[in-house]
Amino acid sequence: MDGVSREERMSVVSAIQSGDQARFAELAEEHRRELHVHCYRMLGSFTDAEDLVQETMLRAWRRRETFEGRATFRAWLYKIATNACLDWLSGPARSREITVSMDADPASPSASPFAEVPWLQPYPDQLLDQAAPDVLAVARETIELAYLAAIQHLPPRQRAVLILRDVVGWPAEETAQALELSVAAVKSALQRARATLREHLPERRSEWGPATRPSEEELGVLRRYMEASVAGDLGALTAMLRADARQTMPPASLVYDGRAAILDLWRPVMAGPEAWGEWKALATIANRQPAVANYVRRPGEEHYTAVNIDVLVVEDGEIVEITTFGPGLHAAFGLPERL
Description:
- The protein is of the alpha+beta class and 339 residues long.
- The chain has helices spanning 6-17, 21-29, 32-43, 46-62, 73-89, 113-116, 125-128, 145-151, 156-167, 172-179, 183-200, 216-231, 234-240, 259-270; strands spanning 241-249, 252-257, 278-286, 289-297, 305-315, 318-325.
- The protein starts with 5 loop residues before the first helix and ends in a 14-residue tail after the last strand.
């Protein structure tokens, strides 16, 4: 194991193989959060990843006699987690079909990987910060929503190869062993996966770099977005949206393309006789991107109730993408359901 002596390594092997449940739980718990992020990348769903981490821990305990210490305990858990995800993705209950309209052209400006991946969920940054010993493993370029949506278009085994090679950083030989593939098959799968990924990622993504938090510019746009939303200031919101901005709302396969379409969506709920009520907003960060949790107090109600979480993409001081998620994950973000 990395950074430990042979005596320490053999002590861990002995403790695990002998069925020392307390020691096993202690060792496994050290890797729970990064395994959750790994499963999240594989599945695109925060809640499904929770289930698969639990399945990984159960499988690891049941197979503890197979851990011989040739690989690190962490690598052994990653192998189990990856194969648990692959089993889940191949199962009858997976419901993981990409939803593309029959007349949709993937190369057209209106095509959106977010709308095509209805199970996509955001990941709270406060949990990402607990996830890995290597900060690059949870850098923006491999955890942002655009990346998560894009890799869901890959066949599961190609997705596993891409993640293990390009994110986890395993060599081809170790990846091949974990997935029971030949090295040649791993290299071929990686080449195909990278080519597919390029087709679905934003053109400017390469400019973002491996940041681990939003820039000051992005946070400034977020603050103005929150202020304008709470005030119902459609003029200010108009000024912040790029003309070709887009809004999607997983799990609904809906795309609001262009500033005018987005404003038409917002106008009835924010202003006029059918407005939902009084709004409040709390800033947060999801997938290394600026985000806001929105709440509304409807007429006659005492409390503000969670409505959604908006995750923003900002370029050159303008909002170019909004991905809106329902209120189911507020607790994971450390946010209340009511104010």
